[in-house]
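User: Batch of two.

Assistant: Item 1 of 2:
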Amino acid sequence: MTTQTAGIHHITAFVRNAQITADFYAGVLGLRLIKKTINFDAPEVYHLYFGNEIGSPGTIITFFPWENSRKGKVGGGQVGYTTYVVPADAFDFWRERLAKLNVTFTQTSRFGEQYLQFADPDGLLLEIAAREQGAESKWAFGGIPASKAVKGFGGAILYSTAPAQTAELLVNVMGLEKVGQEGAYARFKATGDLGNLIDVNVDSMEPGHGGAGTVHHIAWRAKDDAEHALWRSHVESNGFQPTPIVDRQYFKAIYFREAGGILFEIATDPPGFARDEEPARLGEKLMLPEWYEGHRTQIEQLLSPFEIRVLEEDK
């Protein structure tokens, strides 16, 4: 087996409110709600997926909106910044858009690239970079034409409590290549064209703690079920303790925690989000796994309704 992931499959985070989250990720960032389902382990909580027009691997951010959750602290053992990438000519568009929508941001540079850094309403740290690489989204929403839309992930900044060991894992287990070091960060590159540039702090970082505004886990891509099974054996043979393979309906998953405290998942590209909805109707209906379908009425009563809506500023 060639042990190289193409890059990020998805990133999952904690937030508090479904409507506020939808207004930010669909309304401000223009992502498509591609699946509205539940946390399979806590069916009273939504699991919301946002991505490009079909939820391609490398574009998917997912959320558990938990109204009464504590505020998290971003720190070691987490994804620090989730990086989004837009078309190469769209950087000024996004700088102007964030300013118009009163999203506070700073412009910074790293490894010769410019970034717009900001936070969502719960404090989840995000940044936007502009690159040629990666297929453009076909999804247009609100004030965002498809030609300027977020393509998907550019990568992420990982905050590690043991950065040397995290770096070793990325290279020797996940198959990324170290391509540079600058200031506080080392950079690693995966083989794909989205979600492929990963920066890791070079000095140890104080641990954070989970809660609203933090990332729960980062998932990496496996191309199919056969490769996924090999990934599990590969991770285990390198001294980690992966979970059994879990069926998440839209992908298969294994989980393990790396030495720097970050929860890693490896997820299959197939079957994808159109397995139970038509591509044109993705995200419109609450989708439940078959073992919860008999409890639909009770579950729907526990979930606060929300809608995908165009912001007033874009009307």
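Item 2 of 2:
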Amino acid sequence: MQTSYQFPENFMWGVATSAYQIEGAASVGDRKPSVWDTFSSIPGLIEDGSSGAVACDHYHRYKSDIELMAKLGIKHYRFSIAWPRIIPDGRGKVNEQGIDFYKRLVDCLVENGITPHATLFHWDSPQALEDLYGSWRSREMASDFADYATAVVSRLGDRVTNWMTINEISQFTHVGYAANHQPTKAPGTIVTSLKEVWQTCHNALLAHGLGCQAIRAASPGSCSVALVADIGVSVPLTESAADVAAAQKAFHVTWFNGGIIFPAITGAYSPIILEQLGADAPDIHSGDLETINQPLEALGINNYTGHYVRAADNKDGYEFLALPKSYPRLNMPWLNIVPEGMYWGIRNISEVLGRKDLPLLITENGCATQDEVNAKGEVMDIDRIFYLRQHLKAAHRAVNEGYPLKGYFLWSFMDNFEWEQGYTRRFGITYVDYKTQERIPKASFNWYAECIRQNRVV
């Protein structure tokens, strides 16, 4: 019986962050506003009325932050590049000051023995393009994204070879646009129909496809290209054949899988989704699906929770199960603790999508906990350690059974601006005192360092 939870020798241990959540310096170096700067300025939309204008001031403190990463022992760091820092107007002139910041950042990572993994888009699109044509509501956004990708990769491709196109399409489309109610994420645009929401999603998939082509064309050498998806995970209530089959069928309709990862990975929308949508399905032009379905070196999976499913005697053959009131969760309303979701997310990608050959990375996994600094100046986030330990055990099960999981990026390296929750939720393994910008490694930081050192779950 396997009890050591040892990972393969070449397993990638890392941490992840995103630009708007940590960089700050919102008007430094000719950066112009993103849709999140605008969204955050509207009263009532951010829980504590804050914004990412200063955040963790990583723009000015990246050297000491990277030194702390080196102490953690990671060899891989996933970060994002801010489009409004590189092309402030969204299209047109490239801002070399913005490029220079990322050159310094990447050089510092390499000097510390850390491999950079750059995400080109993590939700902070230029406000200028929202003003010009409604950003993701327009197909123009896809070609502007490809031009932005070309600008970045042609300048940083001598330093960065691991690229991720877009992070979590569902969040800035389905949660950033909505019909008949205020969306909770930027750009926060109310549209008139579900079809328009799905069109923003399709346009983002087009941007991913064109972005893949742009990265490969601009890269001075061989490179790795990935998409990052917040897949919905359907978890069988029991591992009976009936429940497993039910959960795998339900995978098509869990969250937005059938309309995002299915076209990206298989070249076709799930027929189950298209049937459900009917007239609300997006308009798909000739050649779109071929553009969207680009070959990938890896798929990034952001996993935090899961949804229990069992076989049912109904037209679908499955049913999603509501969680009881006493079901455990951490410090977000949706953060139910479902560690098996890690294993089933990996397995479902390989089996339901028929892509056992596609290398997988956990590009985000972590939790918000109610962290406090004690009298000794420590943050004893034992609940986070519990959560992470169980998820890594589930990841190990997937590896042990032969599924192609190659690496794990913990979310997040440090506390940060948590979107519509502002600074009221802490996801980091490093505590940030936002008044002083002091960094305090939490108990989970030291625990994760030991996992990395021993290359296993401890």
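The mean pLDDT is 98.
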